[in-house]
Amino acid sequence: MRDHMDTTVRNIGASCTTDDAFLGGRLQILQPAKGLRAGIDPVFLAAATHAKSGERILEAGVGVAVASLCLATRVPDLGITGVELQSELCELATENVQRNGLARSIHILEGDIAASAKSWCEAGLLPESFDHVIANPPYYDSRKTRRALDPVKECAHVCNDGSLEQWVRFMVRLARPKARITLIHKADALPQLLNLLQNRIGDIEIHPLFPAEDSPASRIIVSGTKGSRGPLNICPGIVLHQPDGGYTAQAQRILRDAKAY
What we know:
Strand content: 25-35%
Structural class: alpha/beta
Order of helices and strands: EEEHEHEHEHEEHEHEHEEEEH
Largest sheet: 9 strands, mixed
Number of strands: 14
Distance between the termini: 17 Å
């Protein structure tokens, strides 16, 4: 899923990046011109995160920080920590935070979610210390996907055996009791996600995203409360595109107007 963005291509050192407008121009985001590129998925992830001023947010796999920046734009006075494995993306995320004037709200950490809990404690990420934990994890199974020529893209988009479980474990460990955990993923990953989240979170809400009115869902947003035993609810979804290909009014409220889901 890709938003229509105003884009300027620029060269920074040896790498080529684009300078893209999100939220109707409220945010300017540097990202690689090729390989991993943020579209509308992180914008919807942020819109589905119902944070309040003063709360602490962790984004696992922050990438170039689109979701964190969208969330900080909508909700003031948040304490957001973004964790990212790849140095190149960490550098771009840090620059994006600074150039959008949100350095007081967002801090970027380089590290691997598969690292030990002790390592993360030493980095300042203590267990059960966040009110919301959010993620847009890799979508594609390494066993079913051709290797990408771009290693940054492959690392961000391809999920190795068992790695989705590592993402869930990391997110649950860092979430406070009763914290909200929110992920966006491909629709066909729903059975695996629910299996991994079973007995870890409850009061689960599933929000489908439909490319068009007559199309099956292509993405799902799954959100739940740590430690809850509340029931699962399938919520009304959002149709993204009109017949002419433009975004629907409901999608525009999120993509252009920075409204919550």
